[in-house]
Amino acid sequence: MKLFSSLFLSAILIITIGCAQQQKQEDTTQKEGKEMIDNINDISVKDMEGNDVQLSDYNGKVLLIVNVASECGYTPQYKGLQELYSEYGEKGLEVLAFPCNDFGAQEPGTNEEIKEFCSSTFGVTFKLFDKVKVLGDEKAPLYERLTNNDAVAKGDIKWNFEKFLISKDGKIVGRYKSGVEPLSETLLNDINKQLGS
Description:
The chain has 197 residues and is of the alpha/beta class. Helices cover 39% and strands 16% of the residues. The chain is globular.
């Protein structure tokens, strides 16, 4: 009887340990999955020359990602974005601009035309990328991630010049509506926090 009791208790112990290990593994998998959802490191984008750019290459930098347009009421924000980049670029901030024609067809130009406009009108020196879709079935993977994660408010972008702040390790940490100016106190405070300054 004692032998049976010992075997029974051993079996219960083995099952309990096994269940605990399985639960721990599931928790770890869920945590890793959540981190991936809130992180852009696994995403590749194209620059204006058609080259693939892995966003993990920017690790160690704070990123401000913006969907831009040349014929929008918010287009003057290019000036603020450039000032922001000029001021904070050496401190570790990168501005990544993604032209988009989804709102009022306000970015009809080719990549070359967009680049020329940004350079000649606003003296833009930050990185411009290939034109993307931020809405609908053809939404770029980057914008699918930015607008559908657990770190910031979910939902489609409403207009041009919406901004996303990314930490040095690729995590999505902030989302700002189009009306939030690049040099606004809110955005500057959050950028400085991420830069550690």
